[in-house]
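Spend some time on this chain, tokens included, and walk me through the fold:

. . .
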Amino acid sequence: MRTEDVLAAIATGLWRWDNATGIVTLDAEAARLLGLPAEPARLTEAAVRSRFHPVDWNEIDGVVNLAVAEGTLAEARLRIMAPDGRVIRTVRSRSKPLIADGDYQLVGTLQEVAEPQPGTAARTPITGDWRRSREAFLLDAGRALAEARSTAEVLRVAASLSMPGFSPDGLAVFGVAGDRLTVIGHHGHSEGDEGPFTEMSLDTDYPAAEAARNGRAIYLPSPEEYKRRFPTTWPLAQRFGRESWAFLPLTVAGRTMGAWMAAFKHPVAFTPDERSVLTTVARMLAQALTRAGVAESERELSLGLQRTMMPALGPGIPGIAVAARYVPTGGGLEIGGDWYDMIQLPGGRIALVIGDVQGHDVRAAGLMGQLRIALRAYASEGHRPDAVLSRASRFLHGITDGTDDLGGPRFATCLYLEVDPATGALDIARAGHPEPAVRTSDGTVLLQPTAGGLPLGIDPDSDYPTTRLRLDPGETLMICTDGLLETGGHDLDSGWDRIRTLMEQHDGESLETLADRLVEAVHGPGSHHTIGPLADRREDDIAVLLLARTGDLRVLPAPRRTVMTIAQAEPERIADARRQLRRLLHDWTDEDQVDAAVLMVSEMVTNVLIHTDGDALLVAEVGCAEDARRLRVEVSDGSDELPHKRHPGEMASSGRGLLLMEMLAHAWGVDPRGEGKSIWFELREPASGQGCRE
């Protein structure tokens, strides 16, 4: 029997469409299906087109072009129209493009599609409108699944999908763990219904297990089919009263990670179009679950690292309040090299540490953990702050050899301070880290210049001088990493201005509230996803530590002071000293006195750098007496040679320092010390000034 006779016997027609000539060749059965006499025919494209529904014909062009581009089969459902406009039948066309010299011929078959049974999913007409609905559904489903950030969100999206023409009323997602099949989530079932299907062996005679085991979809259009193919587990499924089931493997990159079940209370024929939709959804679901699993693993790792590396601040300390915050960068594992620590020392003292290892990767986090442990060990041994940082620098240099795996330098900035809660004395050593800021009891916020050395890990023999300050009752000290200052396009200066304004507005609230506000000033409210001027800008990690002395305040405001060391090799810091003094005197009523004070400080520090071989230590303090507010400035050096009053001529370029103090200061003097000397002056203003109000 010829092939044509076999095809005719099963009501299947053959046709050929030549794209170059526009001629369509039909055999007798194909002609009959198109409503023509049952005999072979050669027709023009226009003549054939007139036999199809206009909407369906418009869909053919896209289907054929896709098949030509991908070298796949072109499949479509087409309604055949009578001359009077009636639909006489629906046919399925399946064809294969044969490409030669840029043109192609479509060779295929036509077969009549039977009318769907009542209640089946195929009841919806297969028209261009249905295809557009299917494409819109897949686009919406893909977008929703791509935006899901957790397994729970993926399952909620999957449960809310409304498939065109056949929406399942029961869903279940199974995962593979070793040789077991587990239920990850389900929808459309009661609590506890998943019990019999949990921890099921992959060898079980169950459709989901077979789909996950073999990587092939299983379609069960009727309860009879389910019972015939899976008699062992049919009693488990029977009680749910479903009529049709689809079990599809969840496959990503060639690996089957589980299975997806879609169950229907109405019969579903699972036509090729319906299977195509289910297969596409299963692929998108598998990818979404994989992404969500990776994201959840990263979040769990991130939180674990943070819990391990960000310690609790320990028990309360009488007279001292401490608050801290750590906010990771928004990228990667959300963990970087910033850290803080609080260490209990012998004798009731405590040490506070804050630092930043270069980088925002896992290696930075690992180095941070090692460095934090080393710093705790050196501090616990009783070393002073300068020795702690010197040893930490040698340690970091030793474990990195100055470079990371990519050949670049790997270093860390750090600020280490010891505080005596009884007296408020602070000993600070700094390694390339931003300087601390102090909010005085009258609300003034000052950046405290402190001596420092190179970042840790660069030079194993680097020295880290110690600066001593005192924190009075009512004062708050803040130390932070550069992320708090520079995030949002700021440099260090503009970043300090932003933070200083916020700290000055802090009045009577807890340190925890201030810590939250400092972070929110950079990142926005706690959600970190607010639209607008406070939108999320996680450019760098942030660590911040706040330390406040909480003893009884004096009747008169506590004095505020600044301390600064100007080294012989840093004459440019004289300008910093002038700026620091102006900040200290921000509320001094007499501007001429402020200018005089700045001029005298500049002369005093310059004389030390010119006439001695040592550094200049500047201490400036503003305090209140019973009848006046007083500024006292001391500049100390290590030379025993006392200054002499000179009488410079008009053209002389030096020798006026003591004369200036004699003319401008209310009091001045030179005090010899055990090693070196101290030159000082005082200025006063009436006690009614705002700085001395009770």
User: Anything to note?
Assistant: The mean pLDDT is 79. The CA atoms of residues 387 and 493 lie 30 Å apart. DSSP finds 18 helices and 28 strands in the chain. The longest helix spans residues 272-309.
